[in-house]
Amino acid sequence: EDQVTQSPEALRLQEGESSSLNCSYTVSGLRGLFWYRQDPGKGPEFLFTLYSAGEEKEKERLKATLTKKESFLHITAPKPEDSATYLCAVQAYSSGAGSYQLTFGKGTKLSVIP
Amino acid sequence: NAGVTQTPKFQVLKTGQSMTLQCAQDMNHNSMYWYRQDPGMGLRLIYYSASEGTTDKGEVPNGYNVSRLNKREFSLRLESAAPSQTSVYFCASSESAHLGYGYTFGSGTRLTVV
């Protein structure tokens, strides 16, 4: 069974204090790994897709990296507006469904304190 | 661009009542999805439609039905609501269910069944 585990569940940072969020996964035949940001009361907002080990993507203060077993979302010098829940999802082929499925982790709730 | 539009945003039902959640996308995407999000459970796939004219069960389909009305619209129906269906429901779309494209999510429907 495909599994996606995110850690920590919650993270409090001071403004400017860099850190990383982790997403570990066990899937067969990874097609892509996705990072989303979700604000309270809103739907997930797409951030990045990573397709192969060694790949990196950057957007403002965020940088996502991928290995064969996990992905990291590095946050450099965060600001209060970076406070949100960050979701990781992996897409892999499901033989039971006969198609590619997206499996989500439970998310990391990030709070950045001024 | 509207992206993915869900209606209604909030709904309260009594146990046993029925209702349909509506979803429409204006991005000419082929694939559409319905997820539910519960505290501590993450996003779970209810049903999806890989292309117009097809629908398939996801991880938690019991108690739900779906209709892919056309390429733009994908509705979710609760025939006899139960308290266990209290959740936040998200509709999403993507260019393809098979090629590792990111999903675009709507803003959600918050459903309470009493």
Concise summary:
By secondary structure, chain A is an all-beta fold. Chain A has strands at residues 3-7, 10-14, 19-26, 30-38, 45-50, 56-59, 62-66, 70-75, 84-94, 99-104, 108-113. In chain A, strand 9 and strand 10 form a beta hairpin.
For the sheet with most strands of chain A, the description reads: 6 strands, mixed
> Oligomeric form of this entry?
heterodimer
Class derived from helix and strand content of chain A: mainly beta
State the helical fraction of chain B: under 10%
The low-confidence runs of chain A, each spanning 5 or more residues with pLDDT under 50, are none
* Rg over C-alpha atoms of chain A, rounded to the nearest angstrom: 14 Å
- The number of distinct helices of chain A, counting runs of at least 4 residues, comes to 0
Beta-strand residue percentage of chain A: over 45%
What gap, in angstroms, lies between the N and C termini of chain B? 36 Å
Description:
The complex is a heterodimer of chains A (114) and B (114). Chain A is mostly beta strands and 114 residues long. Helix content of chain A is 0%, strand content 62%. By secondary structure, chain B is an all-beta fold. Chain A binds chain B through residues 31-32, 34, 36, 41-46, 49, 51, 87, 89, 91, 97-102, 104-107, and chain B through 4, 33, 40-45, 50, 56-58, 90, 92, 97-108.
List the helices and strands and how they pair.
The complex is a heterodimer of chains A (114) and B (114).
Chain A: E1 3-7, E2 10-14, E3 19-26, E4 30-38, E5 45-50, E6 56-59, E7 62-66, E8 70-75, E9 84-94, E10 99-104, E11 108-113
Parallel strand pairs in A: 2-11
Antiparallel strand pairs in A: 1-3, 3-8, 4-5, 4-9, 6-7, 7-8, 9-10, 9-11
Chain B: E1 4-7, E2 10-13, E3 19-25, E4 31-38, E5 42-49, E6 56-57, E7 64-68, E8 74-78, E9 87-94, E10 104-105, E11 109-113
Parallel strand pairs in B: 2-11
Antiparallel strand pairs in B: 1-3, 3-8, 4-5, 4-9, 5-6, 7-8, 9-10, 9-11
